[in-house]
Structure formats: structure tokens, C-alpha cells
């Protein structure tokens, strides 16, 4: 054999760390053909077989099937073409694994029942068209027939989740939770009522925003009191509450009386529903936006302050 070193199948196994059984299988499939045979008929392999065996092992570890490997080794298929096809297949597998991980993580975090886990899995697997329909149904239920013309188009757009083509696990988990919220009839009715409140309280020439005018007023009026640690039911809060109610009553053209304070308390309680803030937090994760400003501290304070004074 022109001085070439030849190895028995056992020696080849020791050199490569691959079992004799596996090498024999690869050899039978034409991946590692023997260079020669001994007088007794045993297979013998040269250094080229060692290199081929290393390549087969690498390609197998990368997930290529034996038929594709044989074609690559025999130059029937170019390796870049095979690699590109496997990249696409791996991308699909990765998306599936991310979906599974998102559902399992959400189920573990929330101690979900089997029924809830099944629902989460179905929501995670929705196609892009199905996601658009789900979100569209939710937004139609919330905004349909409310406001004049295109007044609320911007708000509706700002409430629309856009899950990217290649979402990460956090975005998938956020999508599953947001989709559940969007499907909840009670949450839909709650957001619808807030939108109707916002439409009824629109101030001329003031474009509506995700935070209603009322929410912005509360934030501006109450944030200093929260920062200063003033208790909402304390006498020190009296002038702050009076200023808030007076400003709201004037701006929305109401008389500042006991009835209006009860009305204002009801609106603030609706605004303070934690599901509203949770929706916008999830939306920011899905769309890759900065986390939204939390109004819960000022809304909590306002609700407690007004409730204490309407019950006196």
C-alpha cells in the first residue's frame, strides 16, 4: 500500500473514540469505506478514513442525517447548501422550543391548572394572522363606535402588540399573558368603560393619549404628595384633594359637589385597575418599547384620599 499506515477497525476506534459498532455501521452505509482488507478479510483504513470519520462525527453532532452526510462526502451535495437547509430547520425547532419554554415558565410562575396551561399553549402557537384577529377583536370590542372619526386611532395603535418574527422568551411569555387578558370578557368590558370615560371627558383641541387627561392631572397633582409621604386620609391631604377635585371639575365642566366627588372616585377606581397597567407593561415587552410609567402610586393615593372623604 505504498507505505501508507493502515488501521484495523479496532485501532480506528481507539484513535477516534468512536465505537467499533458505529464505525462498522458508517462503513456499511458507505460513509467510511475501507481502504483495503487484510488477508483474513478484515477491513483496513488509512489516515483519510480518520479524517472522514471526524467529519462524519461533526456533521452528525450538528444534526445532519446520514443520507445528507453521504452526499456531502461524495460531493453530490455542496455543504453550504446542506448547512443552509439545516439552519432553516433549526430555526423552526428553536421557535418551537421557545414557545414550549414560554408556556412552561408561565405555568410554573402562575401555578397554572392543566386547563390554563392548555390555553396558554394554544395562544402561544397562534399564527401571525390568528394573532392579528385576536388583537383586532379585542380592540374592536374596546374602541368600536367610541369617539368621533379618527380621534382614537392613535390610542388604538398604541395599544396594538406586534410580536416580532423571532421573539425571545420574555416576549413570548408577555404575549401569552396579554392574549389571555385580551380574551377576558371582564377585562374587555373594563377597558371599554375606561375608553368611554375618556371619550366623554375629551377636552377640545387636546389630542387623546394612552394616559387619559384625568390620569395626567392626577399624576401632576398628586405625585408631590406621594413623594413627600403625606398620608391620603390625613388632614394634611385636605388641600391637595380639594385642589385635585377643583381642577378636574373645572376642566370637565362639572360642579364641585358630593355627587361629582363620587363620580370622580368611580373613574379613578377604574383607572387604578392593576390589569390596565399590566397590559401596557406586557405591551412594552412585546413591542420592545421602554417600560411604561407607573401611575399606580398616585392613583392608589387618590382613590384612598377621595374614598376617605366621600365616606365622611
What is the chains' assembly state?
single chain
Sequence of secondary-structure elements: EHHEEHHHHHHHHHHHHH
The biggest sheet, with number of strands, parallel, antiparallel or mixed sense and barrel status, is: 3 strands, antiparallel
Number of domains: 3
Overall morphology: rod-shaped
| Spans where pLDDT lies below 50 across 5 or more residues | none
Sum this structure up briefly.
The protein is mainly α and 312 residues long. The chain has 15 helices and 3 strands.
Write the layout of secondary structure elements.
Elements lengths: L6 E2 H8 L3 H9 L7 E2 L5 E3 L1 H15 L4 H8 L5 H32 L3 H11 L3 H16 L9 H6 L10 H15 L1 H16 L12 H16 L9 H14 L6 H14 L2 H14 L8 H15 L2
Antiparallel strand pairs: 1-3, 2-3
Helix pairs in contact: 5-6, 5-9, 6-9, 7-10, 9-14, 11-12, 11-15, 13-15
Amino acid at each position: 500500500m505504498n507505505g501508507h499506515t493502515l488501521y484495523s477497525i479496532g485501532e480506528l476506534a481507539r484513535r477516534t473514540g468512536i465505537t467499533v459498532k458505529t464505525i462498522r455501521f458508517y462503513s456499511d452505509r458507505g460513509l467510511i469505506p475501507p481502504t483495503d482488507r487484510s488477508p483474513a478479510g478484515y477491513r483496513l483504513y488509512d489516515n483519510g478514513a480518520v479524517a472522514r470519520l471526524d467529519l462524519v462525527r461533526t456533521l452528525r453532532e450538528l444534526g445532519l442525517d446520514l443520507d445528507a452526510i453521504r452526499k456531502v462526502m461524495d460531493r453530490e451535495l455542496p455543504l453550504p447548501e446542506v448547512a443552509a437547509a439545516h439552519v432553516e430547520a433549526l430555526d423552526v425547532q428553536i421557535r418551537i422550543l421557545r414557545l414550549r419554554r414560554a408556556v412552561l415558565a408561565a405555568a410554573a410562575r402562575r401555578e397554572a391548572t392543566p386547563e390554563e396551561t392548555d390555553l396558554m399553549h394554544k395562544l402561544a402557537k397562534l399564527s401571525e394572522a390568528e394573532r392579528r384577529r385576536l388583537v383586532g377583536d379585542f380592540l374592536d370590542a374596546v374602541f368600536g363606535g367610541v369617539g368621533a372619526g379618527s380621534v382614537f386611532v392613535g390610542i388604538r395603535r398604541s395599544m396594538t402588540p406586534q410580536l416580532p418574527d423571532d421573539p425571545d422568551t420574555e416576549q413570548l411569555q408577555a404575549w401569552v399573558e396579554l392574549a389571555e387578558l385580551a380574551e377576558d370578557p371582564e377585562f374587555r368590558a373594563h377597558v371599554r368603560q375606561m375608553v368611554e370615560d375618556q371619550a366623554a371627558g375629551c377636552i377640545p383641541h387636546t389630542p387623546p393619549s394612552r394616559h387619559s387627561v384625568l390620569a395626567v392631572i392626577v399624576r401632576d397633582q398628586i405625585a408631590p404628595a406621594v413623594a413627600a409621604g403625606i398620608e391620603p386620609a390625613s388632614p394634611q391631604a385636605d388641600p391637595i384633594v380639594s385642589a385635585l377635585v377643583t381642577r378636574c371639575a373645572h376642566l370637565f365642566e362639572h360642579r364641585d359637589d358630593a355627587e361629582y366627588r363620587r363620580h370622580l372616585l368611580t373613574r379613578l377606581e377604574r383607572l387604578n385597575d392593576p390589569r390596565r397597567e399590566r397590559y401596557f407593561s406586557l405591551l412594552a415587552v412585546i413591542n420592545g418599547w421602554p417600560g411604561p410609567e407607573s401611575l399606580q402610586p398616585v392613583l392608589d393615593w387618590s382613590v384612598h384620599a377621595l374614598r376617605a372623604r366621600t365616606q365622611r
